[in-house]
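Minutes, project check-in
Item: structure for the 468-residue chain
Input as provided by the requester:
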Amino acid sequence: MKKVVFLVLAAIAASAFADRPKYVFLFIGDGMSVPQRMTADEFSRKSGGGPLAMNAMPFSAMTRTCSSDSLVTDSAAAATAMACGVKTKNHYAGVDPEGKPLVSSAAAAKKAGVKVGILTTVTITHATPAGFYAHRKNRGDTYGITLDLADSGFDFFAGGGLDVNPKNALKHKQYEACGDACEYVRSKGYKIVETKDRFLSLKPGDGKVLAMFANGSLDAAIDADGSQPTLSEMVAKAIEMLDGDNGFFIMAEGGKIDWSGHGNDSATNLRDILALDEAVKTAIAFQEKHPDDTLIVVTGDHETGGMSMGFAGTGYALYLELLSNQTMSVSKFGDKVTAAFKANPNLSFDDVKPIISKAFGFKFEGDAKKDKMVLSAEDIKGLVKAFEHDIEFYRAKIEENSKYDGVKRYLLGGECRLVMSHKCGIGWSCGSHTAMPVLSTSKGRCAEKFSGSLDNTDIAKAMKAFYE
């Protein structure tokens, strides 16, 4: 009799999951909308890489992104909508507008016996990943979010650090009981891994994992030196660790796309999109081995920067191939210039020319009509002005110019990225999020559910239905 009951229950369970994909990949490009995807696609084509894999998927949908209290969403509200299927306020993660906890698709998968992985290129407690496991009214509550991470029971986390603020932690009544955030995570059965070598050597029998490769976010793809795993490598390891009889749910975020969008750093932005696409290709390779059981969805949480493909100075032309000349992010370039200031207080513009040329590929001599990387007199004038400002600002920061009352940030990196964008034909309208809809594409089992015109909550509703 017991055997019959068991077989009946097994048949019911099998029937319940018959119409759902066994393996689900949800890729989120933070700050990635249509112009970002198209710019990276065109760059990839011109550099011999062909179209982006994410753009070649058979199903697509324009996706509305607003939050419950603003047409322009932030990442926390957008992630909550995509994860939980409910609109909430900006800065809220995993809770509704009244602050009540919500159930995410990842949590529904876990409850159904499916293994869950959450991956990102920024801090693992950042807004987008937090939307899938946390329940906080303040996305900045990284200590509380860390507690939620540990309490989620999810099987695999990988990305940057926890970004826990000790002052923030002291506000929590749980602090005395939990002590150090990492110790609390360990107390919940997680193995904490902090190097690439240890990460790549993980085996499926190693249990629950929290892998962190930096104190903050991971390096931008353009700055990567191989010491940290790529998002593609994280996805590959997640597949290895999570594959099993009940399948898995993996959310993987290209988080640094948003950061370079805020900085209007075109070359850095598209390199992180290409890195996300490499992770998508890893999922596609898996899907090709499991064509009847795998769903892949690629989307964005919002657009950042107001990017446009076209600039008045280039007419109807785009020269996206010029972006290959940039070898580092504007942020890393700024660090190098600051280090040069520190090493030589009497630094001149001629001294920084080699740094500028190495970082952006600009040429200070030559025929600008024959070589687009040659700077015009107007370009150089703008760079010199920004450099002179930065020298004064640096002297004020080290208390050598107490009378300084100018702009309190460095400007040379920004001027360089502006020149680069204009040469390529890329425009930016702002340094913040916009209300532009994002593009969602999908492939595999049940992919047709993610086509047409969607609200971002529809993504969660469809995925949660797989596990109910």
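Outcome recorded: The first strand starts at residue 23 and ends at 29.
No further action items on this chain.
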